[in-house]
């Protein structure tokens, strides 16, 4: 575990505009230049170090949690994690936009440079662009805007409830510590507890990302007037994956697919073939999560990088299996293999997350937490009939 991060300044109205806003604004300008084509390469190259510096400055100098909550800001520390992740994503995507030989093009020509660049800036999966070629998404929701909004609002409400209940259970099992409870003397029971907490953390992550996808989908379609086809599902039932390749390349979210391919897979494929490309993609993913964990204010943990590298090793092993047998990993045995590999190595990811304090954070105010109401209801029912 590395040392704690340095003290950052609370977010203010002034620092929001002179520190937080410049990186995404400059990245937007970079997207304008990228759409204009290869003749702008020199300008993009000149703009790149400015974006990298401004993003770094925002990540290390701003404290959004203290800006909103001066007393016990640790309960909102995940806002700093989100901010650091956003700045790191700006850096990754700026590198891709600067050096990529592929000119961003909409699949449907609109000839609206300013709006197209805005879409490219905030459209993480680049849906509707040539940059998303080969990306897999789950079954589409209704394309009629009203039906889409109803379905998405329902999904949002359900996942808020699921997340809050899972988070509540995690807070009971691991309020401030990691997934391991060394006070449990029985190794088997200690292992069972760590496995349960690991699964809960994974489900919390899934629900949180789903909540974000639903919320932004409602904003995009309901407020901005975008087509619902521009907001395909974030996930495709990852618990049904029958291989690690199926899980990571198709069913898990593909928000950073182009970054992992451009910055990790393609360069290392040139060096070490497909195995190198696979490990390269997962390495960039691990670095993304490593940096994001640093945003929680308690240092970071290299184990999150190890977790993703091990996932890459699993995908490579599936490739060897296909070569040996002529068949892909699939079916119920592939499902068991995927579950054992992901959950078995899961503590490398879940333990640092719990130790970082994210499970002790406040996402829903206690007076209106559904989980608290359900807990009280269950307690009252138990007392009544006991």
Describe the overall structure.
- The chain has 14 helices and two strands, in the order E-H-H-H-E-H-H-H-H-H-H-H-H-H-H-H.
- With 386 residues, it is mainly α.
- A two-stranded parallel sheet has the order 1-2.
- Helix 5 runs antiparallel to helix 10.
- Mean pLDDT is 92; it is low at 1-6.
Q: What portion of residues belong to β-strands?
A: under 5%
Cα(first) to Cα(last) distance is 47 Å
Name the helix and strand elements from N-terminus to C-terminus, one letter apiece. Answer: EHHHEHHHHHHHHHHH
Number of strands: 2
Query: What's the overall geometry?
Result: globular
Query: How many alpha or pi helices?
Result: 14
Oligomerization state: single chain
Largest sheet: 2 strands, parallel
Structural class: mainly alpha
Keywords: Membrane, Transferase, Transmembrane, Transmembrane helix
Pathway: Secondary metabolite biosynthesis
Protein name: MBOAT-2 domain-containing protein
InterPro entries: Wax_synthase, Wax_synthase_dom
List strands and helices in order, with pairings.
Layout: E1 9-10, H1 13-20, H2 22-36, H3 41-61, E2 62-63, H4 64-68, H5 78-99, H6 113-122, H7 145-173, H8 187-223, H9 244-251, H10 257-294, H11 303-325, H12 331-345, H13 347-355, H14 370-385
Parallel strand pairs: 1-2
Helix pairs in contact: 2-3, 2-5, 2-6, 3-5, 5-10, 7-8, 8-13, 10-11, 11-13
